[in-house]
TrEMBL record:
It is a multi-pass membrane protein. Keywords: ATP-binding, Magnesium, Membrane, Nucleotide-binding, Phosphoprotein, Translocase, Transmembrane, Transmembrane helix. Belongs to the cation transport ATPase (P-type) (TC 3.A.3) family. Type IIA subfamily. The keyword Transit peptide does not apply. It is found in: Cell membrane. GO terms for molecular function: ATP binding; ATP hydrolysis activity; P-type sodium:potassium-exchanging transporter activity. GO terms for biological process: intracellular potassium ion homeostasis; intracellular sodium ion homeostasis; potassium ion import across plasma membrane; proton transmembrane transport; sodium ion export across plasma membrane. This is Cation-transporting ATPase F. It catalyses: ATP + H2O = ADP + phosphate + H(+). GO terms for cellular component: plasma membrane. Its main location: membrane. The chain crosses the membrane at residues 65-83, 89-105, 253-272, 278-307, 652-677, 683-704, 725-748, 760-779, 791-811, 823-842.
Length: 864
């Protein structure tokens, strides 16, 4: 047991707060002191739930043999052994072993990449220690700690609530009840079930509303959720639509191949070939032809994509996201923090229709600044940047926030909610309200004129000054004073500047050239939204507000949403409607969000994107991807990587299928013609193993092609096997068979021995595969025009393959195991010639089709 509880923790819900605090040995106002916290950490251990480890390496290794194909291969080995082919049987065993080792290594790599991801989003929590609130990793919490919780936070441990402000908690993870539970501080009956313990909040549940302060009663494995592994933030490994499709394809192909092989076997035996020899031949046919490495290769390509994305600031939580990202057609993004820096500075104040510079506001608009300090949860360097900016303006105007706060202690709070767009704090008799200008002004009758006079609001003047501030891209907040018995008084406006991120400007431009529609969806004012949209290069055109959306007739909704790029004053619920409208139009939608209310939209979007730095745990949990830097440019980078991943998958498929089909066909054609096999079974196994690993897998590491963001997005319904891919596969398969057979026959005709002729055929086969690998570095453009950089893996693969072929050809032991023989220079010229011809044919095919596909007929074909 590595984490702790305090005796009788189960009954904390039945104790009054004071008694609970006493039992936990903590002062709820000051928290533990650091030494005590350290000591308890030693005693109770980290606040983490240890997940049971997966199967160990030995079991994972053995699992590699659990494959029908391997069974057949082993059976073939046994048959071969029984009939005296001891060396061949040994080779088959070696191949099986090698296959298992390669599979094991690949699987472990992919697994490690994914495991690393789950650790990259640190979970932090606010804890009061030595009387000071501070952020600490949730893992360092100990029983007795005092934690502060706010809407959007995941409860980091089991706590007894000591203070609550309108707090509601979604306990569905624990109780299955999806309606949030209202929390209180009163004790309940000792026998109350977990769902009824209003005075407690449990680890892993989500605060959906309000704020609370609680005393940690249990951590780690001792929490209610301690045993439930799935709540730990591990990246999920689920099959993606693509991997599922490919797995099905491989299975279907396998069945076809096995049937063909069985037919070939019967035919061969009827023709008089010895059954054991035939058996090994058709097993080789099957093993060569079945693309058994395909699913593994796909998993690796995706895993590499995950790692590449994480280097660009995007952490993928669900593997399918890697694949979906590449097909994204619309990105809906927040404004604040994603397109802008979220570093706010108040540049101007305004009251009674006129702007007032910050420096002068200390005298004329003192109470507006005071309201900004009091109705505020931030510190200058910490907390919500909007609120920090309000402290900054007070200081710039010569006020002392600490003194102001000390003079008017807060007695109650109604926290900010993005639905109401306001926040209120109470300070004895006075309350201060701050928020969106429309919301605050609507509640006021009177306004303060700089200098002290109170008069009825001049709404036209207010609208004018508000309009001129938002048109400059400023975020404007209004402030009001509420006193009992009097109408609320508008104290003034504070307008803050939040500069756009320069990288976002470039990224927006890149998305637009990539045919991806970028839409800004913000809670801010339409004027501000339009101005910022202009600055980052979004076509601003018409701005739709939340109110506009609500009044649109259903039949116009989808069209209006599709045609608009800027949405302002949008509520989180409307974000969900926007996603749905775009999806009805066939779009693949990426949507960002940071608040707890954004979770449904994030879940519904094809790619939900949450903020790693600024967002809530609730949003992160609902998202497919988390941005470590909250930057829009990271989304664009992830889309770029996603497109590259999809490209590499197509490249791998385009390369591997002809290799498999070619290998199978060489055997099949020989059997059908009753001819001598140009390549014998153990040799096929050799080719299959070495090329799949050293040539094919290099495609997984291919860099993203240049100009990948210059193409339109892949249509969502486009199949993986497009016509051009199939054509290429057939073409290259035929090339391989003709080259191998041709080389073999010609060598025999020139008087070479059978072993020499076969060795030449093998080398021709591998040479053509290597040349084709080169061609696969770009599927549609001649590689000479589109030479990608970063060729290290590619060159390494070619080099290793060449080395292995030399070993196979010249080392005596290899000669006897694989029935090969050293060959002369002329044979190598054949190999080279075949490779060059194959390369030229593939390149010519690309040129021809790119010609054909740029004409008007092609445009029609594409649209079909
Ligand atoms: P985005 O969705 O692009 O991040 P946003 O951050 O501007 O947009 P919200 O944070 O929901 O959206 O803010 C919406 C409006 O609520 C703001 O324009 C402002 O008027 C008001 N507002 C924001 N923060 C506060 C706050 N801490 N207290 C009071 N009102 C606020």
């Amino acid at each position: 047991m590595n984490a702790g509880t305090v005796t009788g923790a189960a009954e904390f819900h039945a104790l009054p707060v004071a008694a609970a605090a006493e039992r936990l040995g903590v002062d709820p106002a000051r928290g533990l002191n650091s030494e005590e916290a350290e000591a308890r950490l030693g005693r109770y251990g980290d606040n983490v739930v240890r997940v049971p480890a997966g199967p160990g390496p030995i079991r994972r290794f053995l699992a590699q043999f659990h494959n029908p194909l391997i069974y057949v291969l082993l059976l073939a080995g046994v048959v071969t052994w029984v009939f005296g082919g001891h060396v061949d049987a040994g080779v088959i065993a070696g191949v099986v072993l090698l296959n298992a080792v390669v599979g094991f290594v690949q699987e472990s790599r992919a697994q490690r990449a994914l495991e690393a991801l789950s650790k990259m989003v640190p979970v932090e929590t606010t804890v009061v220690r030595d009387g000071v609130p501070q952020r600490v990793p949730a893992a360092r919490l100990v029983p007795g700690d005092v934690v502060e919780l706010a809407a959007g936070d995941r409860v980091p441990a089991d706590v007894r609530l000591a203070e609550v402000h309108l707090a509601e908690v979604d306990e569905s993870a624990l109780t299955g009840e999806s309606v949030p539970v209202v929390k209180a501080t009163e004790p309940v009956s000792p026998s109350a079930p977990v769902a009824d313990r209003a005075g407690c909040a449990y680890s892993g549940t989500l605060v959906t509303r309000g704020q609370a302060r609680g005393l940690v009663t249990a951590t780690g494995g001792e929490t209610q959720l301690g045993g439930i592994q799935h709540l730990v933030a591990t990246a999920e490994v689920v099959p993606t639509p693509l991997t599922r499709k490919l797995a099905r394809f491989s299975r279907q192909l396998s069945v076809v191949i096995v049937v063909v092989a069985a037919a070939a076997f019967v035919l061969g035996v009827l023709r008089g070939s010895p059954a054991p020899e035939m058996f090994t031949a058709v097993v080789a046919l099957a093993v060569g032809a079945i693309p058994e490495g395909l699913p593994a290769a796909v998993a690796i390509v995706l895993a590499i994509g995950v790692v590449r994305m994480s280097r660009r600031g995007a952490i993928v939580r669900h593997l399918p996201a890697v694949e979906t990202l590449g097909g994204t057609t619309v990105i809906c993004t927040d404004k604040t923090g994603t397109l802008t820096r979220n570093r706010m500075t108040v540049t101007t104040l305004a009251a009674a229709g006129s702007p007032v510079p910050v420096a002068e506001a200390g005298e004329t608009l003192r109470e507006c600044l005071v309201a900004g300090v009091l109705c505020n949860d931030a510190e200058l360097e910490e907390g919500d940047p909007t609120e920090s900016a309000l402290l900054g303006s007070a200081i710039a105007a010569g006020l002392d926030p600490a003194a102001i706060r000390a003079a008017a202690p807060r007695t109650d709070t109604v926290p900010f909610e993005s639905e109401t767009r306001t926040m209120t704090t109470f300070h004895g008799e006075v309350a201060y309200l701050k928020g969106a200008v429309e919301e605050v002004a609507a509640r006021c009758e009177a306004e303060l004129v700089p200098g002290g006079e109170v008069r009825p609001i001049d709404r036209d003047a207010l609208d004018r000054v508000h309009g001129s501030l938002t048109a400059r891209g400023l975020r404007v907040l209004a402030f009001a004073r509420v006193t009992p018995g009097a109408a609320p008084v508008l104290l003034g406006l504070q307008a803050m500047h939040d500069p756009p991120r320069p990288e976002a400007v470039t990224a927006v431009a890149a998305c637009r050239s990539a045919g991806i529609d970028v839409k800004m969806i913000t809670g801010d004012h339409a004027g501000t939204a339009r101005a910022i949209a202009g600055e980052v290069g979004l076509a601003s055109g018409r701005v739709l507000t939340g109110a506009d959306l609500a009044s649109l007739p259903d039949e116009q909704f989808d069209d209006a949403v599709a045609a608009t790029q800027v949405f302002a004053r949008v509520s989180p619920g409307q974000k969900l409607q926007l996603v749905q409208a775009l999806q009805r139009r066939g779009h693949v939608v990426a949507m960002t969000g940071d608040g707890v209310n954004d979770a449904p939209a994030l879940r519904r979007a094809d790619i939900g994107v949450a903020m790693g730095a600024g967002g809530t745990d609730a949003a992160r949990q609902a998202a497919d991807m988390v941005l470590t830097d909250d930057d829009f440019a990271s989304i664009e980078a992830a889309v770029r990587v996603g497109r590259g991943v999809f490209d590499n998958l197509r490249k791998f498929i385009a390369w591997t299928l002809p290799a498999n089909i070619g290998e199978g066909m060489v055997v099949l054609v020989a059997i059908l013609l009753g001819a001598t096999l140009p390549i014998v079974p153990v040799q096929i196994l050799w080719i299959n193993m070495t090329t799949a690993v050293f040539l094919g897998l290099t495609l997984a590491f291919e860099p993203t092609e240049r100009g990948i963001m210059g193409r339109p997005p892949r249509p969502p319904d486009r199949p993986l096997f497009t016509g051009s891919l199939l054509r290429r596969v057939v073409l290259v398969s035929l090339l391989l068979v003709v080259a191998a057979f041709g080389a073999f026959r010609l060598q025999l005709g020139l008087g070479a021995s059978l072993a020499e002729a076969r060795t030449t055929a093998i080398n021709v086969f591998v040479g053509v595969q290597a040349a084709y690998l080169l061609g696969c570095r770009s599927l549609d453009r001649p590689v000479v025009c589109a030479w990608p950089g970063h060729s290290r893996m590619f060159l390494l693969g070619i080099g290793l393959t060449a080395g292995l072929q030399l070993l196979l050809t010249y080392v005596p032991v290899m000669n006897s195991w694989f029935h090969t023989a050293p060959i002369g220079l002329v044979s190598w010229l054949w190999v080279l010639g075949a490779a060059v011809v194959a390369f030229a044919v593939v390149e010519a095919d690309k040129l021809l089709w790119s010609r054909l596909s740029t004409g008007p007929a092609a445009a029609r074909r594409r649209n079909r």
